[in-house]
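Read as chain and fold; for instance:
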Amino acid sequence: MAIQTDWKKIYSEKIKTKLMADFKYTSVMQVPTIEKVVINAGVGDATKDAKMIEAAFNEIQNISGQKPVMTKSKKAIATFKLRENQAIGVKVTLRGELMWNFIAKLINIALPRVRDFKGIPKNAFDGHGNYTLGIKEQIIFTEVNYDDIKRIRGFDVTFVTNAKNDQQALAVLQAIGLPFGRK
């Protein structure tokens, strides 16, 4: 399946007009859009092995096409052997062209590679129009070299929209082609 190259143009020309008709908006500025996509990977093993955080950093960078930032602990927790300001995860925020390229890659390449895929759940909205999708394995992305993987790791992909409620956000995400199926 070929990746659609100009998602932003398709969104502006086709999807916005469809959403305007569906929700009876009077202005194009009322149509909700996807503002950014945030990819976040927590690495709990980083407390034991510092190389795990480097591996997660490289994987998220390859998947997103942008350099991630390290997330650090805010306080020390002795029972988890966690020190203050210790790197415990990586995250990256995608906007613009990189965001649309990642969305196209997720929809057309990565999600179809999930074993026994029956669609993504509809109940992962936060009440403010944002949707978080949990990816269980990073190997569904073609950018991740299977031989270089030290450990199968999951991460979260959050679609941040400017929709006023979850129904509008669901309509936007369905219109761009996210394959919703489960409840």
Q: What stands out?
A: The two ends are 27 Å apart (CA to CA).
